[in-house]
Amino acid sequence: MADRLTYIGSGEIEELLLDSELIPVLERALANFSSEDGGVEQPVRSTVPVAKYNGFLGVMPAYSAKDDALVTKLVRFYQANSSASSSHHATVLLFDPSNGILKAVMDGRVITEKRTAAVSAIATKYLKSKNLDILCILGAGPEAVSHYEIFTKMFPFKQVKVWSRTRERVEKFAKTVGGPVTICASAKEAVLDADVVITVTMATEPILFGEWIKPGAHINAVGACRPDWRELDDGLMKSAVLYVDSREGAIRESGDVILSGAEIFAELGEVVKGTKPAVRDRTTVFKSLGMAIEDTVTAKLIYDCWEVKNKQKS
Ligand SMILES: NC(=O)C1=CN([C@@H]2O[C@H](COP(=O)(O)OP(=O)(O)OC[C@H]3O[C@@H](n4cnc5c(N)ncnc54)[C@H](O)[C@@H]3O)[C@@H](O)[C@H]2O)C=CC1
Ligand SMILES: O=C([O-])C1=[NH+]CCC1
Fold first, then answer.
1. Which atom of ligand 2 lies nearest, measured to the CA of 116?
2. Main localisation, per the record (predicted)?
3. Above 80 in pLDDT, residue 282?
4. Which ligand has an atom closest to residue 72 CA?
5. Which among 99, 112, 189, 259 has most CB atoms closer than 10 A?
6. What does the pLDDT read at residue 87?
7. Is 78 in the pocket of ligand 2 (CB under 6 A)?
8. Which of 143, 229, 244 is the pocket-test mutation for ligand 1 (most atoms within 8 Å of CB)?
9. Which fold does the domain 126-290 belong to in CATH?
10. Residue 201 alpha carbon to ligand 1 centre in Å
């Protein structure tokens, strides 16, 4: 451990981490991840089931040679019967890559929420069709909030329709976000006519069906990160053009990909660097599982900003 270990908490991260800086950093990381010579080392997440308590602990290490950043995120996700108030908690460890010594510990909540939403926004920027009138969000937890925030900032939606399993949570969501929301009584009602759909639930069975989707819509499928969990039905998975963050991750961790047998068309990073096309005239699905390299470059960005701020103070 370093002589002086830095701790950066969620409040300070909120102040330091700007979407306008995060988006280009993540785009570069996605492209590097999908390049032979991108300098990214990232094993597929190791996930330990904690069956007695209905939970999972994920370990997510990565190294980016181009950013000279070495990070591990520890993330726990527990289903509803847990005593914790939130289903996800995370801690990010930043190491000095020259000697492997731990330099900083960061709260992982804001990092996870912001980088996940930013990656969905990048996928949408590349894969959206011409119309961007209606955004639909299925789910009303912290990921729903972070997606609402960046999507309403980056795109000119006229309406945001939201559905979640419990009315209470959607009402809380509507009070939390800083703009208008149309609360829907069913997932189907929320999805009809939407140009972009985001699924951010803890569902383990499909909640989104291909027959509801407007042709040409883009879907960011963010939940269902276990090989036997689903958010999307086979009809949608098989009829859409399927993009993933990591092919290796998707065929190991995504129930929507594994159980539907859908064919992966490209990694998002391949689209960003221009080696695979964005098929904008068809319905597209971006299956996001979350990658350690996203946490790595985000943590490095935060640490660099933190150092500048602290030098200015002294
Ligand atoms: N792809 C990525 O990079 C990441 C994905 N995630 C995933 O995003 C999802 C949302 O995360 P949070 O907002 O933190 O979770 P959360 O647990 O706080 O919220 C989940 C929402 O889904 C709803 N829900 C729960 N079970 C459901 C079911 N069976 N059917 C329909 N709705 C249900 C809840 O009512 C709630 O509105 C989770 O699946 C999580 O694992 C989270 C972080 C990163
Ligand atoms: O990337 C991530 O942090 C996670 N993906 C699914 C659960 C947490």
1. 1
2. cytoplasm
3. yes
4. 2
5. 112
6. 87
7. no
8. 143
9. Rossmann fold (3.40.50)
10. 3
Arithmetic mean of pLDDT over the chain: 96
Quote the pTM value. Answer: 0.97
User: Distance, CA 66 to ligand 1 centroid (Å)?
Assistant: 32
How confident is the model over 15-25, as a mean pLDDT? Answer: 96
75 lines ligand 1 (CB under 6 A): no
Among all bound ligands, the one having the nearest atom to the CA of 142 is: 1
The Å distance, Cα 17 to ligand 2 centre, comes to 19
Closest atom of ligand 2 relative to the 112 alpha carbon:
3
Q: Whose CA is nearest to atom 8 of ligand 1?
A: 223
Per-domain residue ranges of the chain: 6-111+293-312, 126-290
Q: Which CATH superfamily is domain 6-111+293-312 in?
A: ornithine cyclodeaminase, domain 1 (3.30.1780.10)
pLDDT at 273: 98
60 contacts: CB under 8 Å, gap ≥ 6: 45, 72, 73, 74, 75, 290, 291, 292, 295
CATH topology agreement for domains 6-111+293-312 and 126-290: no
pLDDT grade for 1, boundaries at 50, 70 and 90: low
- Closest-lying ligand to the alpha carbon of 58? 2
pLDDT at 86: 79
At residue 118's C-alpha, the angle toward residues 95 and 168, to 5°, is 110
The average pLDDT across 54-83 equals 91
